[in-house]
Amino acid sequence: MNRSRSPISKSRHRSRSPKSGRTEKRRTNDNRDDNRKRNRRLDKPEFLEKPESHSRLAAPQILDDQDEEPDVSDSSTKEDDSRKQLTSRVDVTSVNFGLSGKLTAETNTFKGVVIKYNEPSDARKPTEYWRLYPFKGKEALPILHIHRQSGFLIGRDRNIADIPMDHPSISKQHAVLQFRHVKGLTRLYLIDLESANGTFLNNNRIESKRYYELKEQDMIKFGFSSRDYVVMIDENAGNTKTGNE
To answer: Which pLDDT value is given to residue 70?
Structure first.
């Protein structure tokens, strides 16, 4: 009896050709290789090298109280233009506020109050008509004439101040406007008398006991007062003198 194979068994038999067997074996080997690689990655993870952080994103250096501040000076560092302009006006000569001896006590007392400041030897009354133009916000206040004497004491003590100011942040003897004859010219200087809340030139607080030369259109502030004082020279005052000149 002849046993004929069914179409299904014949197709199965035909599918098991040598070529298909090699293909299946190759797939098996590929799967084993993939498993080995996968196991290798899990056993030995690879780490990427951490890139260097950007200088702006790097953590800031925190100092303890007793640590010295690092030197950050660099040839490429530039001062702000306004600061350069300000520092260039400083007279390197400091002022001696020390009071000693009978003569000093006599010459440095006015109305029973010891004055913290003595005029320098080069003090000189100006020949030009200097003015202080006060502003409170956008409101212009009465002009102050500062050409009539060589120096003007500014402060809250009305008994001794040439230019009294009542703001509570202003010291009793706060600052001085001083005319000095320097290098053949009479120049206007500003000096802070170690005030508690400072004197500001063009929005920069000046160092106490140092002369700062003033130029036209410079702006001065005293303490925390909202008033600004702009320095100017009245060019027309000499031609049209009034009773106030």
So the answer is: 40
